[in-house]
Amino acid sequence: MKGRRGLIMGVANDHSIAWGIARTLAAHGAELAFTYQGDALGRRVRPLADSVGSSLVLPCDVEDLATVDATFAKLEEAWGGLDFVVHAIGFSDKNELKGRYSDTTRENFSRTMVISCFSFTEIAKRAAAMMKPGGSLVTLTYGGSTRVMPNYNVMGLAKAALEASVRYLAADYGPLGIRVNALSPGPVRTLAGAGISDARLMFNFQKRHAPLRRTVSIDEIGGSALYLLSDLSTGVTGEIHYVDSGYNIISMPHPEALKTLDAAEQAVEEAETRSRGQAAE
């Protein structure tokens, strides 16, 4: 990645997936710029940027296109061009991630889609205008895009739309020699993940039942991003690349785990039956 310059969007702290990607890219010689939303996140991002030698740390709110345009104007002024972008931005009202998807409000649906999905299209359009053949764009998705995940609701739809946009953007920009892909990591203990109810339980479940019997680290995700953003993957575009210890291939837990779950559910049912019987007496 030496001699390549790229924008990292979505770092919240040193546990962020975007930071794992940034750290890996910097270790392989990339020159980085960062964006942040709000002063609180800015105070977290600046020291991280400093640690990888980056002085370009820019405010950007994807709901405010003026700030998006200003970000790319600054990059144009500082660098004159761009080699890659990492888009790691998503948002939904955490109160609406609980309960039923059908109870999602129109307001939150629209806002979730704009921030978590359409912002990538708006970023890609501006980034591609600064790129030469060989440019690469990567966004982050999640398995809730194709399968129902508890407490994910409208974010699942936003990620499904994001994945579709990856394919359409890949078709748009492929003739220009610009590649567009997505990473789909397994659950990681991040600030964003903390907004999902019972995240710890789902984290542990996937850890137990993934083929590798473990979760992934942000550095492993960074390694996959390095592949997609470098010349190692010049023939790859429009892809959803899973980094989840293989969990995406599993349809059902292994038999021993099913027996354990069944026994636990039977014990709960028996306890509830006894409780109802005592209450009736």
TrEMBL record:
It comes from the Bacteria. This is Enoyl-[acyl-carrier-protein] reductase [NADH]. One of its GO terms (molecular function) is enoyl-[acyl-carrier-protein] reductase (NADH) activity. It comes from Phreatobacter aquaticus. It catalyses: a 2,3-saturated acyl-[ACP] + NAD(+) = a (2E)-enoyl-[ACP] + NADH + H(+). The gene is fabI. Keywords: Coiled coil, Fatty acid biosynthesis, Fatty acid metabolism, Lipid biosynthesis, Lipid metabolism, NAD, Oxidoreductase. NAD(+) binds at residues 10, 16-17, 37, 61-62, 89, 159, 188-192. Gene3D superfamilies: Enoyl acyl carrier protein reductase, NAD(P)-binding Rossmann-like Domain.
